[in-house]
């Protein structure tokens, strides 16, 4: 049973949307529904959701476009629904930021299991990052500051650099484990939710975005370096700030 879980189901087919919402409610979830991306965007401005079940083939704005917006601007996990089962379509969906992909027709019990898994991985990502024994509020590295309470990155000039949820999680893992080489799979396990382990190149996108914010020349990074054939590591010494 879902407890205190608010789900958003976005599908233009009423014969799928309404029965699915009813099924999820029977499992204890609070469920809102939307017939297209415009309605979904309006709901996302008004309420917070724990997860979005999103059909790809929507009238007007596509589900992939909405998924990309959610991934980049909100951070809510997304499970895509689609009738397209090819590997290329799955990759396209996951590359927009989706956490999982379910092909129609589907068994509602399978979708429930996948929702639980995504939410469980999200919870683990939030609490599973290695932390020092004493609570830490801020880290300093190379004249940068990462404020954990505010989830804020301050540049050497004191400028606040916006971080999306995925970027914050990745940077925090690296800052709390400097000089440690992590494989892509390890970084995905510690920073993401969902079945993304088979598409480990998605972590490269997050690294690229962080480099653009941290590095004076992202093509020649000196803070977030590549361990060729292995993954990535953070080169700077890190201090705990008062």
Structure description:
The protein has 242 residues and is α/β, with parallel strands linked by helices. The protein has 2 domains: 6-127, Response regulator (Rossmann fold, 3-Layer(aba) Sandwich), CATH 3.40.50; 138-241, Winged helix-like DNA-binding domain superfamily/Winged helix DNA-binding domain (Arc Repressor Mutant, subunit A), CATH 1.10.10. The protein has helices at residues 14-26, 37-46, 63-73, 87-95, 108-127, 165-176, 184-191, 202-214; strands at 6-10, 30-34, 51-55, 78-82, 100-103, 138-141, 144-147, 152-154, 160-161, 182-183, 224-227, 231-234, 239-241. A hairpin with a 3-residue loop joins strand 11 and strand 12. Helix 6 crosses helix 8. The radius of gyration is 19 Å and the shape is elongated. The model is unreliable at 128-134 and 193-199 (pLDDT under 50).
Short description:
The protein is of the alpha/beta class.
Descriptive terms for the model:
cytoplasm; phosphoprotein; 5-stranded parallel sheet; 21% strand; single chain; 242 residues; DNA-binding response regulator; Rossmann fold; transcription cis-regulatory region binding; 13 strands; Arc Repressor Mutant, subunit A; alpha/beta; 2 domains; 5-stranded antiparallel sheet; WH-like_DNA-bd_sf
């Amino acid at each position: 049973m879902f407890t205190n879980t608010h789900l958003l189901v976005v599908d233009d087919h009423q014969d799928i949307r309404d029965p699915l919402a009813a099924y999820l409610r029977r499992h204890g979830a609070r469920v809102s529904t939307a017939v297209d991306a415009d309605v979904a965007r309006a709901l996302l401005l008004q309420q917070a959701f724990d997860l979005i079940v999103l059909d790809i083939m929507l009238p007007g704005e596509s589900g992939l476009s909405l998924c990309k917006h959610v991934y980049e601007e909100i951070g809510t996990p997304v499970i895509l629904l689609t009738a397209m089962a090819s590997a290329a379509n799955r990759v396209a969906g996951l590359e927009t930021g989706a956490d999982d992909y379910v092909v129609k027709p589907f068994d509602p019990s399978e979708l429930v299991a996948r929702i639980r898994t995504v939410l469980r991985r999200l919870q683990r990502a939030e609490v599973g990052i290695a932390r020092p024994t004493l609570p830490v509020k801020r880290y300093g590295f190379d004249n940068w500051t990462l404020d954990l309470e505010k989830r804020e990155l301050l540049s050497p000039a004191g400028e606040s650099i916006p971080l999306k949820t995925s970027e914050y999680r990745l940077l925090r893992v690296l800052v709390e484990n400097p000089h440690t080489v992590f494989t892509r799979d390890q970084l995905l396990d510690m920073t993401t939710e969902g079945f993304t382990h088979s598409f480990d190149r998605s972590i490269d996108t997050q690294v690229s975005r962080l480099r653009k914010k941290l590095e004076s020349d992202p093509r020649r990074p000196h803070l977030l370096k590549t361990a060729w054939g292995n993954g990535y590591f953070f080169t700077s010494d890190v201090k705990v700030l008062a």
